[in-house]
Amino acid sequence: MTKLFSRFLKDESGATAIEYGLIAALISVALIAGATSLGGKINATFNSLATTMNGAAAKGNVAIP
C-alpha cells in the first residue's frame, strides 16, 4: 500500500494534462476577447458605411432596396 501511494505521488502525468488544459482555456479566453473587440469595430465600420451610402443615394435620387 505504501508503494502504491508513493508511486501515485511521484506520477506527474495528471499535472501535465491540467497544465495543457489551463493553457487551452487561456488561449480560448484571449480569442473570445479579441473577436468580441474586433467584431464591435467591424460592426461600427459597416454601420458608418451604410449611413454614408444611404446619404449618397438620397442625394442622387437612387433607390436602395
Task: Give an overview of the whole structure.
The chain crosses the membrane at residues 20-39. The structure is a single chain. With 65 residues, the chain is mainly alpha-helical. It has one domain (1-61). The protein has two helices and no strands. It has helices spanning 2-10, 13-59. The protein is rod-shaped, with a radius of gyration of 28 Å. It starts with a helix and ends in a 6-residue tail after the last helix. The model has no long low-confidence stretch (mean pLDDT 83).
Order of helices and strands: HH
The major beta sheet can be summarized as: none
Q: What is the residue-averaged pLDDT?
A: 83
What is the first-to-last residue Cα distance? 78 Å
SS field, number of helical segments = 2
Domain module count: 1
Report the β-strand fraction as a percent range: under 5%
Helical residues, percent: over 70%
The unreliable regions are: none
Shape: rod-shaped
How many E strands?
0
Given the helix and strand composition, which structural class is it? Answer: mainly alpha
Oligomer state equals single chain
Radius of gyration: 28 Å
